[in-house]
Input
Amino acid sequence: MKRIQFFYEEVYPRFSKQDLKKRLAFLLEEENIAEYNLRYIFCSDEYLRALHHKFSKKNTYTDTLSFDLSEEKLLEGEVYLSTDRIKENSKFYQVPLVQEIYRVAYHGTLHLCGYTDQTPRQRERMKKKENYYMMFHVEHFKSIRSPNP
Output
């Protein structure tokens, strides 16, 4: 099974679902994940903060939370993404909103693939992986924005 689905809790960000699915599938293939059933839930800050508090006892905002629901060989999970945090990140880092949506989706997916970011070394490894996958995204946008010579 290879399934990626998108759901929305009161928010509806604009992006190409087909393009993000394709890029997430590429990430999973690169990470040697053959079978997966993943759900990406876009929600508000308050919705995600409540989940963060409920499951990790942290009463803080976050841009994404990942829940690994895997059994045996099937990678199964849910990635919650705060559109409010994504918008703030986009402004802060001065990147297009859709680019930040992709980055946060990659980050949550990498957590499901077994990467963590609890220590400085783990954060550095995670950031390198995010940047690796974002490189394909940025090159894609460059090709769209500029006509072929």
Observations:
- The mean pLDDT is 89.
- The chain has one domain: 2-145.
- The CA atoms of residues 64 and 81 lie 5 Å apart.
- Strands lie at 2-8, 36-43, 64-68, 75-82.
